[in-house]
Specification:
Length: 425
């Protein structure tokens, strides 16, 4: 599915599911070569698209694609076009000739719902196959635990190729909510998004911390966020400093969301009821039918406070990576505490806090050893963010001729940070 942000996007998703097929969401904003690579890797033969993408699609070579279904009236003359790539374009008039009656397809729990491509450490996108039972469990858990209600409207600003778009489409639609789908221009421009919210108020929004920072820096969009009742924040580390800023800007309930694509969107959530919560930003507790473990290298449980790899089991664990059996077996392992089930190794570091909440400490490949000491760079960054005036922080390792050392870079409020520069070693 290669569609821009419009009602056709939602209709296309519903139609594909109704037909009993699985969808692969492709964002038109991605580089053409990347999209073509995903089409080739997934073996896509039928593409749901629009006239604006016709030139792009026609330029692809050596892909399995054979048919493009265009969903727009304009620019279509009803004639078939044959390209060198042997792709056939079906016009909207041709599609209207098909019956809209139910296909009577029986959807199985273990059937594929969608394939989402994520970037890995190799830089090559890999497809994650998510099944219907994974999605149904996720939707049920979200509606049970978070403020989704039929009377509310959810703002959708996320690209369809990011798995958290499921939270902005399937979840609200499943419980009778209205979805306010921001256009491409509106989701990119804070001023246009503010105008949209003034015209069509929304009560629930899901966003990444980086987008929130952008919205709060614009007076118009910052004002548009004030009436929000709930903000679901995830996809990136959520700085404590941003939480403090939000407490001033809005009275919305704040939720810190965590989860890899491989365990179906979100796996844990923290309802942030008090600012800072002791200076530690928690990812909370698991959603229903989800088990979360902090394990050592031998997949043994770590004690409270000890750092280990965050591993996830339960009904959200996806089938695996498309056409990558070796990688699937490496990351989706036999569940050590539930015979016959599987567990996903996230590659993230975490620890249990004494009150039963989880603290996320970054990636395992963000862990370094200096002079024999194992150092969590994410933990150092978290402490830097507790300093008043520090807005963002990144810690890296510099290898000198004599020794390796940590170096920190940060974005700050200059007057405040200068007044404290002698307070820290």
């Amino acid at each position: 599915m290669l569609l821009s942000r419009s009602p056709w996007l939602i209709a296309g998703l519903l139609g594909i599911m109704k037909a009993g097929a699985a969808y692969v969401p492709l964002d038109p904003a991605l580089p053409t070569g990347r999209i073509e690579g995903m089409v080739r890797d997934a073996g896509i033969r039928i593409l749901l698209s629009e006239e604006a993408q016709r030139e792009t699609v026609a330029g692809w070579v050596e892909t399995p694609l054979r048919q493009v279904l265009c969903l727009e009236e304009q620019g279509s003359d009803g004639q078939q076009e044959e390209q060198a790539s042997q792709v056939r374009f079906a016009s909207v008039e041709e599609l209207k000739a098909y019956s809209s009656a139910s296909t009577k397809v029986e959807t199985r729990a273990e059937g594929s719902a969608y394939v989402i491509y994520t970037s890995g450490t190799t830089g090559t996108p890999k497809g994650v196959v998510v099944e219907h039972r994974n999605v149904v469990n996720f939707m049920t858990g979200m509606v049970e635990a978070l403020p989704f209600a039929p009377s509310a409207t959810m703002l959708s600003v996320t690209t369809v190729s990011f798995d958290i778009f499921v939270t902005e489409s399937w979840v609200p639609l499943s419980c009778g909510m209205q979805v306010l789908l921001a256009s491409e221009a509106e989701q990119q421009d804070p001023a246009q998004l503010a105008a949209l919210l003034m015209k069509h108020p929304a009560q629930v929004m899901q966003t990444t911390p980086s987008r929130l920072v952008m919205l709060l820096e614009d007076a118009r969009s910052a004002a548009a966020l004030r009436p929000m009742q709930a903000l679901l924040i995830g996809g990136e580390p959520f700085p404590v400093t941003l939480e403090r800023q939000l407490r001033v800007q809005t009275e919305a309930e704040l939720y810190n969301m965590y989860g890899p694509t491989e365990t179906t969107v979100w796996s844990t959530f923290a309802h942030l009821r008090e600012a800072g919560e002791g200076g530690k930003m928690s990812i909370g507790r698991p959603l229903s039918n989800t088990q979360v473990y902090v394990l050592n290298e031998a997949l043994q449980v770590q004690p409270i406070g000890a750092v280990g790899e965050l591993c996830i089991g339960g009904a959200g664990v996806a089938r695996g990576y498309w056409a990558r059996e070796e990688l699937t077996n490496e990351r989706f392992v036999a569940h050590p505490f539930a015979p016959g089930e599987r567990m996903y190794r996230t590659g993230d570091l975490a620890r249990w806090l004494p009150d039963g909440r989880l603290e996320h400490l970054g990636r395992m490949d963000h862990q370094v050893k200096i002079r024999g000491y194992r150092i969590e760079l994410g933990e150092v960054e978290a402490h830097l963010l507790q300093i008043e005036g520090v807005k963002e922080a990144v810690v890296t390792v510099i290898a000198g001729w004599e020794r390796r050392r940590c170096a920190a870079s940060w974005q700050r409020d200059f007057p405040r940070i200068c007044s404290q520069r002698t307070s820290y070693p």
